[in-house]
Amino acid sequence: MAFKLDSVVPWGRNMEEYKLMFQLDDNDMAKKFAGFGDGPASFNYEMIEKNRKIVSFDLIYQFSKEEIEKRIEDVRITVMQQMQENMDNYVWKNIKNLDELEKTRMSAMKKFLSDYEKGKADGRYVFHELPHKLAYEADYFDIGLSSHFLLMYTALGYDFHIASIKEMLRVCKEIRIFPIVDLDANKTDLIKSVIDYFRKDYKVEIVKTEYEFQKGDNKLLIIKK
Ligand SMILES: C[S@@+](CC[C@H](N)C(=O)[O-])C[C@H]1O[C@@H](n2cnc3c(N)ncnc32)[C@H](O)[C@@H]1O
Question: Would the pTM count as exceeding 0.85?
Fold first, then answer.
């Protein structure tokens, strides 16, 4: 069945948030990155502005700029309404209120949209669906990131997660996944069994982060070869 843009809620974060979520220091920032499920985040745009190396992979990159822009506009009001109804589930520290949240997200997504066509032509935004094989050799990237995608959408299932993370670990020397909770900020059995699977053959670390927006989403998973 063809993938429909209507099934995605595009909602992008910025580089400052990525740096905090993934604990990226200056040494890390000089490395070669792959972003899995980066969607309309401005991480790629902001990295390239600073001459850093990054390729983002996402299902939504099969669509045109206009289609993604329209979908962002269509979901904006609904997402903001849901945020208002669930304000108590969030930590209003880095982002102080709903107004600031909307401005931060829209500014990140505008940056992404302004860069999308050029980035696609340059091979920085690549239409790819995990867990399919990526067109990169083993260990091509130093660090692979997944923000608010893997482990969060537990409905994708155990086999999807094992196959996707295996493929990420084929092309990346290490991967970092944030957060390690599902959409309701719960640590599920699926998350636990996926992590246990990779403990057998990889170095697995769980690190507490300063970044916490949804209450309880303050842990980062690092899997290294
Ligand atoms: C909630 S968004 C997160 C966007 C961005 N990482 C951020 O934190 O701002 C999740 C993204 O995962 C992408 N996605 C979902 N399933 C995917 C798959 N099988 N392969 C690649 N990307 C996928 C969606 O298209 C969407 O852009």
Answer: yes
pLDDT digits (tens, 9 = 90+) for 40-79: 999 999 999 999 999 999 999 999 999 999 999 999 999 9
| CA 195 to ligand 1 center in whole angstroms | 20
Strand partners, 57: 36, 126
Q: Which is the closest atom of ligand 1 to the Cα of 145?
A: 6
Length of the chain measured in residues? 225
Measured CA to CA in angstroms, residue 150 lies from 85, 104, 131 at distances of 25, 23, 11
Domains identified in the chain and CATH numbers: 5-224 (3.40.50.150)
Pocket probe for ligand 1: among 133, 149, 217, the residue whose CB has the most ligand atoms within 8 Å is: 149
- The Cα–Cα gap between 139 and 170 comes to 6
